[in-house]
Amino acid sequence: MIRIGDFSKLSRVSIKTLRYYDEMGLLKPVEVDRFTGYRYYDFHQLPRLYRILALKELGFSLEEISRFLEENLSTEELRGMLKLRQAEIRQRMEEETARLEQVERWLRQTQQENFMSKYDVVIKKIDAMKAATVRGVVANPPAQRVLWDELLGFIYQNNVRMNGTPMAIYHDADAREGDWDIEVAMPIADDPTPVGHVKIYDLPAVETMACVVHAGSFATIGESYDALAKWIDVNGYQIVGPSRELNLKMPEKPEDQNDPNTVNEIQFPVQKV
């Protein structure tokens, strides 16, 4: 038998760690002096200790290692745990590779353009939502006001409860000189009977939505669209549906295109090319 200090030097495992493994039941000393409390180990315990260290290097928790050592796992069970660990490591490597690519793109952008873009794009999942909508063709985006007048008139007249952020859905793939196909939508909690051009239906969920926030006047919102479109292209995505423009903070005066305090979120459903 050898004392814990000597066992620590031999195995290159700290005394503190050996004591913790004792408390966990992973590697208990062969003897503990009842008077001094000294822990004593045996050379034959080195293979077990090295198995613990090897499994720890693979990323297994001490609880998982305890299962390995104490539950007499079959070869098939052991292989299953190793395959699961393999899959977890591969997924993390893929995530880190994607993160590295993003960092490299940012570096290239700052080197080429000599400034950091003020538009940061995030990918998020959007749940389905019930909405009241009015869709029509108008001359330009500001002209969508007539659609909002009809929609909000319906909502107020029928005391419909609103429970989300108003948005405009652009059904045209590209910006147009005229005849914009726009649908204005308000998430609602009720199920009223539609009237006129008003429709009630569930806006579909979107698994992968590329989103950017535009803080500033409507007059400059094109900058955000351009930044988002560039990000989608550079990051290997493609647009797969109509965009949504959420009105997070409206201008103080309706139809004021130059209110600098306006805040909108632009969303494009995307998928990897």
Written overview of the protein:
This protein is of the alpha+beta class and 273 residues long. The protein folds into three domains: 2-70, Orthogonal Bundle (Multidrug-efflux Transporter Regulator, Chain: A, Domain 2), CATH 1.10.1660.10; 77-116; 122-272, Multidrug-efflux Transporter 1 Regulator Bmrr, Chain A (Alpha-Beta Barrel), CATH 3.20.80. Helix content is 38%, strand content 26%. It is built from seven helices and twelve strands. Strands 4, 5, 6, 7, 8, 9, 10, 11 and 12 form a nine-stranded antiparallel β-sheet that branches. A three-stranded antiparallel β-sheet has the order 1-3-2. The chain is elongated and about 90 Å long. The N and C termini lie far apart (64 Å). 17% of the residues are buried.
